[in-house]
Amino acid sequence: MKHIHVELGKDSYDIHIENGLLDRAGDYIRSLTKSKTLAVITDSHVDALYGKRLENSLQTAGFRVHRLVFPAGEEHKCASSLLDLYQSLSDSGITRSDYVIAFGGGVVGDLGGFAAATFLRGIPFIQIPTTIISQVDSSVGGKVGIDLPSGKNQAGNFYQPKGVLIDPTLLQTLPKRFIHDGMGEVIKYGCIRDLELFELLEGLDDEGIFDHWEEIIERCCKSKADLVERDVLDMGERMILNFGHTIGHAIEGCYGFGRYTHGEGVAAGMSMLTGVTEAMGLTKEGTTARLRKLLIRYGLPVDVDASAEDLIPYISNDKKMRGNHMTLIILKEIGKGRLLPLEAEELPKYIRKKVAP
Ligand code: GLY
After folding, report:
1. What residues contact residue 268 under an 8 Å CB cut-off, 6+ apart?
2. Which atom of ligand 1 lies nearest, measured to the CA of 239?
């Protein structure tokens, strides 16, 4: 078992990483609370695979369990699902001394966490993430929210969980494309602050990573915890986690959120931006080639067909824009990211159209 403490004063919590932890979740949650009742918020996909197993573990530890299941998919991270969840929490008799468990990928963590943050003005909650992106990133740091018709994550808050339980064996049922999707975020951590992780990934492949998940997840969560401790409200250092995301989100949006997954968009975004910053002399020579080689190794795109003109309209609505200013994250070299403040008018020059053949 690996433990990482996230020190946030009264909002501090621990992240636990261990193969098979799902079956011990009940004991762990029992050590945190005397409450009798838990609401497990999950989606139809995770519930079918693992819902009963989690419920058994929780019941064995003496909890009464309500499983609140909504349909899987980003399109359900919306206001109407949130209202349905409030009603289900109310029907289940959940009170402020009970706990909510958000059990699933990023959509479940964001929606379930936001329901927990706002129902009865806040119910304590635990994250049990089941995808790579949620295990290495979104379950830690307290960002919760829903999408609005005008954009992703546009209604939300910071609300820290009481604990994060990560069972890497749950990744075994992920389809290959979602392994690759998650690797986009894992490679990002290597790029921005963990050269050793980047080197570890260079020596592995799609199959090899399965023997190293505990270590990979621990490295990413340590970076995430450190950044969250320094900048919980995402006003400074934490923004470095957005490397690849400004162009990545634009790629996802430009193709209607159907063609590229989040991790694929981030991968292409990291590669395209680094190609530009290296050509400008802001990034050490050879960085782009090394990054692209690793992305290709994990089945990720390094470029897209859309032009800068196609992508820019999808950036202007981005949360990273503050007034006319924004912060772009670039690499000095592999393992060292930095924040680059920009005026909005300067952005187009950081988006190049095509990778040279
Ligand atoms: N996923 C980026 C952050 O939590 O800041």
Report:
1. 244, 247, 248, 251, 260, 300, 301, 302, 303, 304
2. 5
* 100 contact partners, CB below 8 Å, separation of at least 6: 38, 39, 40, 41, 89, 94, 112, 115, 116, 119, 123, 124, 125, 126
Cβ-proximal residues to 315 (8 Å cutoff; 6+ apart), any chain: 246, 247, 249, 250, 321, 347
CB 161 within 8 A of CB 112: no
Pick the atom of ligand 1 nearest to 141's CA. 4
Claim: this prediction has a pTM higher than 0.90? yes
Per-residue confidence in pLDDT tens, the chain, 357 aa? 899 999 999 999 999 999 999 999 999 999 999 999 999 999 999 999 999 999 999 999 999 999 999 999 989 999 999 999 999 999 999 999 999 999 999 999 999 999 999 999 999 999 999 999 999 999 999 999 999 988 888 999 999 999 999 999 999 999 999 999 999 999 999 999 999 999 999 999 988 999 999 999 999 999 999 999 999 999 999 999 999 999 999 999 899 878 999 999 999 999 999 999 999 999 999 999 999 999 999 999 999 999 888 998 888 655 566 678 899 999 999 999 999 999 988 988 998 755 554
Measured N-to-C along each axis, helices 213-230 and 176-193 cross at an angle, to the nearest 10 degrees, of 50
76 close to ligand 1 (CB < 6 Angstrom): no
- Cβ of residue 134 lying under 6 Å from some atom of ligand 1: no
